[in-house]
Specification:
Blueprint (H helix, E strand, L loop, with lengths): L23 H30 L3 H29 L8 H14 L2 H15 L3 H43 L6 H27 L9 H28 L1 H23 L7 H14 L13 H22 L2 H25 L9
Helix pairs in contact: 1-2, 1-4, 1-5, 1-6, 2-3, 2-5, 2-9, 4-5, 5-6, 5-7, 5-9, 6-7, 7-8, 7-10, 7-11, 8-9, 10-11
Length: 356
C-alpha cells in the first residue's frame, strides 16, 4: 500500500509508534459506524416486511432488490480486497475467505475493533513493536471497511430512501413515525459514512495530519446538507416522473463511472472489469456527493461537481418542485457549500492545525 511522499505503512520504523496512536476518539467513531450499520440493516429488512404485510409487493421486491444487489457488489469488492491483502499468506483457504465475506455483511467493523483492543493491550505492556503492528493493521482494515461502508450507504440505502421519500411525497398520508425515524437515521448515517471514509483515508496516509474534532463536526454538517438536498430533490422528481428519473440516474452513474475510469484510472485490481465495477460504485456515490477516488488535488473537481449539481438542482426545482420546497433545497445546498469553504479555510489539517 503506497502513499504520498513515498511513505508506506510497512516501512515506518516501529520506534516512531508514539506518533501514530489509536485514540479513544477514533475507536468511538468506529463503534458509532458499526452501530449505525447494524441499525440500518435491521430497518431495511423491517421496511421490506412492512411493505409485504401491507400488500405493497412491488415496493417490497424493490426494497429486497436494493438490499441484495449492493450486497453482491460490496462482497465482490471486499473479496478482491481480501485477496490483495492476503496475497502473502500461504496456503489460500477458500472457506476462511467465504466466512469473512459472510461475516463482513453484519460485522465488518469487528476486525477493526479487534486491532484497536490489541493495540491498547500492547500499549499497556509497553510492547512498541506489537503496538505499531496493530496500529498498521487497524488502519488498513479501517480504510478497507470505510470504502465498503461508503458503497453500502449509497448503493443499498440511498435507493430505498429515494423510493420511500417518493412514496411519501406522492401520498403524504403514508408518512409514519417509523418511516420518519428511518429517514432521519439514513441522512445521519450517509453523512457519518462519508466523514468516516474521508477520515480513514487521511489516517492511512502517514504523512498527513488527522482531522480534528471541529473539522469532523463541520464536515459532517456540510455533507448532511448536500445529501439531504440531493436526495429530497431526486426523490421529489421521482415521485412525478419515476421512469425518466431512473433512466437519467443510470445515465449519470455510467457517465461518472466512465470519467473516473478514464481520468483517475484506479488500480484496485489487476482486472479492468473489477476496476470498472469499482468506478460504477463511485458513480452511484456521485449522484449525491463527490469524494476523491485517489489522493490528488481536488479543488477544480469539487468546483466542477458542485456547480453541475447546483445547476441540476435548480433546473429540477424549476420544472418539478413547488416554490417553497425549491427555495429550501437550494438554500440548503448553498449552506453546504458555505460550510465546505469554511472547513477548507479554517479546519482542514492541510491548512491549519488539527487540534480543536
Amino acid at each position: 500500500m503506497d502513499f504520498a511522499n513515498g511513505l508506506r505503512l510497512d516501512n515506518v520504523d516501529s520506534a516512531n509508534v508514539a506518533s501514530y496512536q489509536i485514540t479513544v476518539f477514533s475507536s468511538t467513531l468506529t463503534v458509532i459506524s458499526a452501530l449505525m450499520r447494524f441499525i440500518t440493516i435491521i430497518l431495511n429488512w423491517c421496511l421490506a416486511y412492512d411493505y409485504w404485510i401491507s400488500k405493497s409487493f412491488a415496493y417490497c421486491y424493490w426494497t429486497i432488490l436494493s438490499i441484495v444487489l449492493p450486497m453482491i457488489l460490496t462482497s465482490m469488492i471486499y473479496s478482491a480486497i481480501l485477496v490483495i491483502t492476503n496475497v502473502k499468506n500461504k496456503p489460500y483457504n477458500p472457506w476462511d475467505h467465504v466466512r469473512k465475506l459472510v461475516l463482513s455483511y453484519l460485522f465488518r467493523d469487528a476486525r477493526t475493533l479487534n486491532w484497536a483492543l490489541q493495540y491498547n493491550e500492547a500499549k499497556k505492556h509497553g510492547d512498541k513493536v506489537t503496538q505499531f503492528q496493530c496500529y498498521r493493521d487497524y488502519l488498513k482494515e479501517e480504510c478497507n471497511v470505510g470504502l465498503l461502508r461508503l458503497f453500502d450507504t449509497f448503493s443499498e440505502t440511498a435507493p430505498q430512501k429515494i423510493l420511500q421519500l417518493a412514496i411519501v411525497l406522492r401520498y403524504i398520508k403514508t408518512l409514519t413515525y417509523f418511516r420518519a425515524i428511518t429517514f432521519s437515521i439514513y441522512f445521519l448515517s450517509i453523512a457519518w459514512g462519508l466523514v468516516s471514509y474521508n477520515r480513514s483515508n487521511r489516517l492511512v496516509q502517514l504523512d498527513k495530519h488527522d482531522i480534528g474534532t471541529r473539522g469532523v463536526i463541520i464536515q459532517f454538517w456540510f455533507l448532511l446538507c448536500f445529501s439531504v438536498s440531493r436526495t429530497v430533490c431526486i426523490a421529489y422528481v421521482a415521485s412525478q416522473v419515476p421512469m425518466e428519473t431512473s433512466i437519467a440516474s443510470i445515465i449519470q452513474i455510467i457517465l461518472s463511472a466512465t470519467l473516473v475510469f478514464v481520468f483517475d484510472q484506479p488500480k484496485f485490481s489487476k482486472s479492468a472489469i473489477m476496476n470498472y465495477i469499482l468506478c460504477l460504485a463511485f458513480g452511484v456515490v456521485y449522484l449525491f456527493i463527490y469524494t476523491p477516488v485517489k489522493d490528488a488535488p481536488t479543488k477544480f473537481k469539487y468546483l466542477l461537481y458542485l456547480t453541475f449539481c447546483l445547476l441540476q438542482n435548480i433546473i429540477l426545482c424549476i420544472f418539478y418542485i413547488p416554490l417553497y420546497l425549491s427555495i429550501a433545497l437550494i438554500v440548503l445546498y448553498l449552506i453546504g457549500i458555505a460550510l465546505m469553504i469554511y472547513y477548507y479555510l479554517q479546519c482542514h489539517p492541510g491548512i491549519t492545525s488539527s487540534v480543536f
